[in-house]
Amino acid sequence: MVRKVQIIAVAVVVVGFVGAGLASVLIRALGVGRLHVLTVAGSAVELSVDGKPTPEVSTDGDHLVFEVSRGPHKVKLTDPVSGTVILYSVDVPYGFDELLLPTREDQCFLRFDMREAAYGRRGADSEEAVPEVTDRYQNTNEPISIPHHTYYTFGELPESVRSSEKAFLLRDIPCDFAGEGANEGLQRMALSDRADVLFTDPDSLLAKDEAE
Hints:
This protein is α+β, with helices and mostly antiparallel strands. The chain contains five helices and 13 strands. The strands form three sheets. A five-stranded mixed β-sheet has the order 4-5-1-8-11, with no helix packed on it. The protein has a four-stranded antiparallel β-sheet with strand order 3-2-6-7, with no helix packed on it. Strands 10-9-13-12 form a four-stranded mixed β-sheet. A hairpin with a 6-residue loop joins strand 6 (71-78) and strand 7. It is globular.
C-alpha cells in the first residue's frame, strides 16, 4: 500500500512537470508580442502594423504598449505633429516577446537597477541610494529586445519585491549622454521630472547644475 502511494505521488509530480512544460510551450506558441514606445515631452505617436492602424492597449505617462501577433511585421511609427515617420521590420518569434521601438533618431536608453534604490532598507540618516546603470541601449534603427523585470515608468514599478526578485527601470536619454563615460549627472536626470529637457535644452540643465 505504501509503495502504491509512493508511485502515485511520483506520477503526480511527473505529470505536474510535464503539464507546466506544455503550458510554457503553449504560451510561447499562442501568446502575442508587445511593442513598447516611450514618447518624449508628451509627443503624440501613431503606430500601424502591416499597414493597419493599431491603437495602444495600455498607456502610463509617456509609455505606450501595443500588441502584435507572432511572426514578421512591417511597423510604421508616425509623429503626426512633425510628420516624422520611422519604419521597423519587427519579428516576433515567440509569444510575450518584449520589443522597444525608439521614436526618434537621438533617443537611446538606460536600464537602472532599482532593487536597492527603491526597495532597500535605509536609516533616517543614510544617503539615498543611486541606481546603477546595468544596460545601455544604443539606437541602431532596429527594435530592441528588453529583458524581463523591466518597467518603463515609476508608476509601473511594483510596491514591493521579494528578496529573490529584480526590478529595473528603463528611461530614455539623448544618445550623446547614453554611452560609457558620459556626464553622470545628466544620466541621473533621466530619472527625474526634468528628463524631457535633456532632449530640448540640455545646456540649460548643465548651466543650472554648475551654478548650484
